[in-house]
Amino acid sequence: MSKYTEPAKELLEKVGGSDNIDVVTHCATRMRFVLNDPKQADVDAIENIDLVKGTFTQAGQFQVIVGNEVASFYNEFSKIAGVGDTSKDEAKEKAKQNMNILQRMVSHLADIFTPIIPALVVGGLILGFRNLIGEVNMINNGTQSLVDTSQFWQGVYDFLWLIGEAIFHFLPVAITWAISRKMGTTQVLGIVLGITLVSPQLLNAYGVAGAEEIPFWDFGFAQIDMIGYQAQVIPAILAGFVLAYLEIWLRKVIPQVVSMIFVPFFALIPAVLVAHMVLGPIGWEIGSWISNVVYDGLTSAFGWLFAAIFGFAYAPLVITGLHHMTNAIDLQLMSEFDGTILWPMIALSNIAQGSAVVAMIYLNRKDKKEQQVSVPAAVSCYLGVTEPALFGINLRYVFPFVAGICGSAVAAVISVGTGVMANSIGVGGIPGILSIQVPDMLKFAIAMLAAIVIPFILTVIFARTKMGKQAYIRLGKTQP
């Protein structure tokens, strides 16, 4: 009998037994359950199990924080519970049964952007580095950049744009591929559709405004503008879903013996036509409207108020999963304004929540069990992943969460008030400064300092207030 046997038996009992488990899997630190009846889970009893560091529910999944031992614990639990191995993707699909319509829509949006985020992060860092060597005059008494004085750096500058262009200008290809992947349709058709939106044959999206004449395809009875949709998000999303649903429908109506020939043919050609005739122009207008509203709001006389609200509300959005919607807005801002004013506030919110956890590490420095969760959570938060910090520490006590969103609001006001702009989405924590446009890096560093210091101080203060005392009593802990 291993050391995990008794805790596994106890957890199985407290979640309602094997019959109440639809799906169970695990990630780096947590067990993820999809329960048939979530109300059967005895949360208080589960959190009192020695191996358990906390619990929370998100995106239809009941999650139990175990820590670095989760893989070994999961194996023992699976044997005792008699549940089969399940992938995280399968667990997510099952979990959607417990979501409302809005949560499902956001989940679908997250499924589109999650696979392409690594490329976006790399692209943001590349653009930041190109700005550093090409736009900052640091040579010859501040009169020339590295690119101006060195053929090597000029070569590096030019070469890196090959990657930057592939990521951002050809972003519709990644989006249509991600949609076909998510929908279980033919992924290469999604790629082909995306390429038709950014083909060199088309007038580049960045050249439309200054074009004297827009080329077109002439069908005699109708003409279609030959406009590309480089870096455009909404047109790619609309076109991708049309292709996916068309293919799914065609699979049902076309006999299987000829489906390999006719399904791709009758799915792709209409999807491309509709994308260029209808969805592209409509999506462009929608995307421009959204980005203009956000940009105008944040740069208006009341921009500080919008910033404060966003900085205060972003972490609560993470709890609900609605924060995934900001990816599309960020990318649209980048295509319209060559940068995003929104993403820096997201990075600052992550830093603020991490700083609140650091304060809790300081306050509860004698609680070795909690530090098994809090220390990795703080590191994760500073690197852009906030869920372990939010659900493992800050929301359990509440007052660190409040301190974090207050600090985030102040940092957001500083960021927007000083006009900080990011090249793109980047690493959503302290390393995020590398994605900030070079002239704004010092201003962002000041906002980062606020996001570090203010939540730490507020957390320590709140711990000694009535709110803090009640939190410690509720959790059965000794107040520092």
Question: Any overview of this molecule?
Answer:
- It is built from 20 helices and 6 strands.
- It is globular, with a radius of gyration of 25 Å.
- It has 3 domains: 5-99, Gyrase A, domain 2 (2-Layer Sandwich), CATH 3.30.1360; 115-287, no CATH class; 299-474, no CATH class.
- The chain has a 4-stranded antiparallel beta sheet, sandwiched between helices. Strands 5-6 form a two-stranded antiparallel sheet.
- The protein has helices at 5-14, 43-47, 70-81, 88-95, 101-113, 117-134, 146-149, 151-168, 171-183, 187-198, 234-253, 256-299, 303-320, 325-337, 343-363, 368-382, 387-397, 399-417, 441-462, 466-474; strands at 21-26, 30-35, 54-58, 61-65, 216-218, 223-225.
- With 480 residues, the protein is mainly alpha-helical.
- Helices cover 64% and strands 6% of the residues.
- It is found in: Cell membrane.
- It holds the Pfam family PTS_EIIC.
Give me the secondary-structure topology.
Layout: H1 5-14, E1 21-26, E2 30-35, H2 43-47, E3 54-58, E4 61-65, H3 70-81, H4 88-95, H5 101-113, H6 117-134, H7 146-149, H8 151-168, H9 171-183, H10 187-198, E5 216-218, E6 223-225, H11 234-253, H12 256-299, H13 303-320, H14 325-337, H15 343-363, H16 368-382, H17 387-397, H18 399-417, H19 441-462, H20 466-474
Antiparallel strand pairs: 1-2, 2-4, 3-4, 5-6
Helix pairs in contact: 1-3, 5-9, 6-8, 9-10, 9-11, 10-11, 10-12, 11-12, 12-13, 12-14, 13-15, 13-18, 15-16, 15-17, 15-18, 15-19, 16-17, 17-18, 18-19
